[in-house]
Structure formats: C-alpha cells, structure tokens
C-alpha cells in the first residue's frame, strides 16, 4: 500500500509542477524535479517545524515514512524500471547511422569532459576536506553525465538529431563507460587499499565495448528476424513483447558491466526499425507520460538536507563541475569539428547529473567511502545541476538559433 501512495505522490508532484514549468516556458523536467523537491524534503522540513513548534509527536511516524531512505527502499524497483523504459523509448528516437556518424566526436568530447571536471573536483575537495580517497570520489562524481537527463531534455526540445544533440548522446554514453571504470577503481582502493590491476580494468572496458558493438551491429539484425516471426500478433501483445526485449537487453548490459539504462538506450536504437508505428507510439506515451515524470520527481525527492548540504562545499563543487564540463567537453567538441556555439551547448548539456551520479553516491556510501552528510551534498549538487542543465540548453540553443549561429533543423544525417 505504501509503495502505491509514494507512486501517487511522485506522479502528482511531477505532473503539477511539470505543467507549471511549461507555463513559465521552462523544460518540463525542471518542473518534475522541483515537484519532487517540494513534496519530499521541503515538505519534511515543514513537518519537522510543526512537530517542534506545536509538540506534534504524532508526526514522527509520517516523517520517518516519508524519508528518502524509506521511500527509496519501497520504490527502488519502480525507479529502475522507469529509467529502463525512459532510456529505451529515448533510444527509439535515435537512428543508429546518426549515432555512428557522431561517435568519433563523442569519444573526444567525453574524454576531455571527464578529465577536466575530475581534476577540478579532486583538487577542490582535497583542499576543502584533506582526504585523498574522498577527493577521488568527488572528482569521479563530477565527471559523470546523466544520460537520461540529457537525452530527455533534447527530446523535449526536438533537438536530439542535431549535431550538438548527437554529440551529447555519444559523449554521455562513453562518459558512462568511463564512470564504471572510475567506480571500480574507487571501490578497489576503498576495499583493498590499492589500485585494481590493469587486467581487471581492461576486462571491464572490453566487455562494455563488446556490448556496444553487439547492440549496434548484431542486435538490429536479430530483432528484425524475431519481429518478422510475430508480425501477426496484436498491438497489445507486441507492446508486451517489446518491453520484455527492453528488459532482457538492459540485463545483458548489466551482466557485461554497463548500467541498465545504457543497455536500454542502445536496445531502443537497435529495435527502432523492427517496430510497428502503433507499438512505437504506445511505448513512447507510457515512457514520457508516466515513467519519466515519476523518475525525475524522485531525483528531487531524494535530496536530504544536512549541514554539509548548506555549506560552501556544495556551491564549490557545483561551480567546479560546471566549469570542468563546459570547458572540457566544449573543447573536445570544438576539436572534433563543431562550431563554438555548438561546442558550448555540448559543454552545457554534459552537465546533467542524477541517475548514475546518484547510484555512484549510494555505492560509495554503502562502501564507507563517504558519510551521510557528504552523500547529501553530492545528491544536492546532482539535483541543482539536474534543474539548471535543461534550462541552460533550452535558453542558449534558442538564443544561438535566433542569431543564426546554429540551425536546430540541421540534423546529423544531413
């Protein structure tokens, strides 16, 4: 029963504030996240104020049951499923040939977009906290881009197939592979006291690369053969079978060392040309109309206010992460042949946090690398950037388009 109540709470918050954001001409995602922030941590702060001011001890049970930790335990499966469906539907919006055309650009963009924020994050955290392992973790957290946030923002702007849009998608996926490597290194250091072997890191990277190659060149052929054998089934059955395929591909990606959402996104690209139009539409409506709002509301809900979250540490890592991504990823995009305005948009788009960032924070907390206060600060940073990034992309892409510096109709395939 509680999981159902939490789901309704997140959905109401996401839809109400999402619509409000649209009326204010802001990205819907911003409203979804803000809705979760209002109905979650801010509402909890209000309840705590009422409890202490009026002695309402009966609110204790409500406060505990609404805490992000309690809600997270109850809804973790739903959040995993939501992000898989969101990324799967996003992949269905992307053509493999467009993705491949931008892949070289994405590799250089991702590489510099990881190196710069990692270095700045490590240096800033070490000067502030004086702990090498924690500083390495903070650098790793700032270097990771949230694929789901970036892609959903681009879809809402109808800019997913522009040159800068495809570069962001490619770079975000490569960035995620690098994030997995960084996480494995950090966990090895925290558990054993030394770096993992070169062989271990190489195996992680090799498995990830093999999965990407399979998804791009083998899966489309296999899926076409599979769907040709079930072409006479009803649309409802086709939708169910397609969701099954999304889950299987996501699990395969997980077994090969990647995050579920990367497998889902690549699976969406692979299955795109095998689906009937009505099946495609049905999955898109559910993914962007239900799962996306719920997930992004949860991003806002997961914030935990603490002393560290209100210290100078948070604005410091926000600024360092922003500068690192804009300069590093932007420089990589420029060196890869994009114009300066396009490169600046890429740098901004690579600043999305949440998803992998929150997972990295949870794993680091469980492993004892960071404490609850530092975890809250990292999550707070993720939510700030999740709110700011879509607004930056929308504002500056519109400005650059009005000035004629970019063409939002210039798709990567042209």
Can you put this structure into words, describing what you see?
- This protein has 414 residues and is mainly α.
- The chain contains 18 helices and no strands.
Features:
mainly alpha; globular; 414 residues
Secondary structure layout plus pairing:
Layout: H1 2-23, H2 28-54, H3 60-65, H4 68-91, H5 96-101, H6 103-129, H7 132-143, H8 147-157, H9 163-192, H10 198-217, H11 219-228, H12 235-255, H13 260-271, H14 277-301, H15 313-335, H16 340-349, H17 356-366, H18 372-402
Q: Would you tell me the overall average pLDDT?
A: 84
Please give the alpha-carbon distance between the first and last residues: 51 Å
H/E element sequence: HHHHHHHHHHHHHHHHHH
The tally of beta strands, per DSSP, is 0
Question: Which structural class matches the secondary elements?
Answer: mainly alpha
Q: What's the main sheet like?
A: none
Uncertain runs are none
Q: What's the helical proportion of residues? A: over 70%
Strand content: under 5%
Number of helices: 18
Summarize the model shown.
Helices cover 79% and strands 0% of the residues. It contains 18 helices and no strands.
């Amino acid at each position: 029963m509680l999981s159902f109540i939490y789901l309704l709470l997140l959905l109401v918050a996401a839809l109400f504030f999402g619509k409000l954001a649209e009326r204010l001409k802001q990205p819907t995602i911003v409203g979804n996240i803000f809705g979760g922030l209002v109905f979650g941590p801010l509402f909890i702060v209000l309840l705590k104020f009422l409890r202490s001011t009026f002695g309402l001890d009966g609110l204790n049970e409500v406060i505990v049951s609404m805490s992000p930790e309690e809600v997270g335990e109850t809804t973790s499966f739903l959040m995993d499923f939501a992000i898989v469906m969101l990324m799967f539907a996003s992949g269905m919006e992307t053509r493999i040939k467009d993705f491949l055309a931008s892949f070289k650009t994405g590799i250089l963009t991702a590489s510099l977009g990881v190196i710069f924020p990692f270095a700045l994050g490590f240096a800033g955290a070490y000067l502030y906290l004086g702990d090498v392992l924690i500083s390495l973790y903070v650098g790793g957290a700032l270097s990771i881009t949230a694929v789901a946030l970036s892609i959903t923002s681009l879809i809402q702007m109808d800019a997913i197939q522009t040159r800068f849009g495809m570069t962001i998608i490619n770079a975000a996926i490569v960035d995620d592979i690098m994030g997995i490597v960084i996480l494995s290194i950090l966990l090895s250091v925290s558990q054993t006291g030394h770096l993992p072997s070169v062989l271990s890191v190489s195996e992680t990277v090799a498995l990830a690369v093999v999965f990407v190659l399979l998804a791009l060149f083998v899966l489309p052929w296999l899926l076409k053969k599979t769907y040709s054998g079930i072409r006479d089934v009803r649309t409802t059955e086709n939708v169910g079978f397609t969701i099954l395929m999304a889950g299987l591909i996501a699990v395969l990606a997980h077994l090969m060392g990647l995050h579920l959402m990367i497998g889902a996104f690549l699976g969406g690209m692979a299955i795109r040309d095998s689906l009937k139009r009505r099946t495609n539409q049905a999955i898109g409506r559910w993914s962007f109309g239900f799962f996306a709002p719920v997930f992004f509301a949860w991003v806002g809900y997961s914030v935990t206010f603490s002393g560290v979250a209100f210290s100078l540490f948070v604005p410091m890592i926000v600024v360092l992460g922003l500068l690192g991504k804009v300069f590093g990823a932007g420089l990589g995009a420029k060196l890869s042949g994009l114009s300066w305005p396009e490169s600046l948009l890429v740098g901004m788009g690579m600043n999305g946090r949440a998803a992998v960032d929150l997972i990295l924070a949870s794993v680091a907390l469980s492993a004892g690398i960071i404490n609850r206060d530092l975890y809250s600060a990292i999550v707070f940073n993720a939510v700030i950037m999740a709110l700011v990034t879509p607004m930056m992309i929308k504002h500056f892409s519109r400005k650059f388009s009005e000035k004629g510096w970019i063409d939002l109709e210039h798709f990567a395939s042209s």
